[in-house]
Write a structure and sequence with these properties.
The protein folds into 2 domains: 1-52; 79-133, no CATH class. The protein has 134 residues and is mainly α. The chain has helices at 3-50, 79-91, 125-133, and strands at 100-103, 110-114. It has a two-stranded antiparallel sheet with strand order 1-2.
């Protein structure tokens, strides 16, 4: 039984080489199958989208502005009316702190103001653009 140990070493090396070859061959086969299956899905996807029906573009949307210019006979805002309309919002503590002023664009007269000298950050960039446009 002395010869069994020697053949076991040679068989062990041969077995490891065979096992390494089988593992490498298995990895290559799995990779090849992945390429074949991936290619089949790619070809199927291309063929299915090529035969898809083309939907025509929808009709363009035409804007219908609803804001109209006021007439000369329209009532002009008054300081009293603005104070009555804006007063409850300014004095309500649940709404936060407000500052601002309303100026008549035609005459430059300040119609309403509340702490106009107090600097604050605007609540949105839309207000900045509106201010810049006015």
């Amino acid at each position: 039984m002395a010869g069994q140990g020697r053949s076991k070493k040679q068989g062990g090396l041969e077995t490891r080489k065979r096992r390494s070859f089988r593992i490498l061959l298995g990895i290559w086969i799995v990779g090849f199958l992945a390429l074949v299956v991936g290619g089949a899905f790619a070809v199927y996807d291309v063929r299915s989208t090529a035969s898809a029906a083309v939907v025509p573009a929808p009709a363009p949307v035409i804007a219908a502005p609803q804001v109209a210019a006021i007439t000369e006979s329209a009532p002009a805002p008054t300081p009293t009316g603005l104070a009555t309309a804006l007063g409850p919002a300014v004095t309500n503590p649940g709404l936060g702190a407000f500052t601002g002023s309303v100026t008549d664009a035609a005459t430059g007269t300040v119609l309403w103001s509340h702490e106009p000298e107090r600097p604050m950050t605007p609540a949105s960039t839309t207000k900045l653009l509106t201010t810049a446009a006015a």
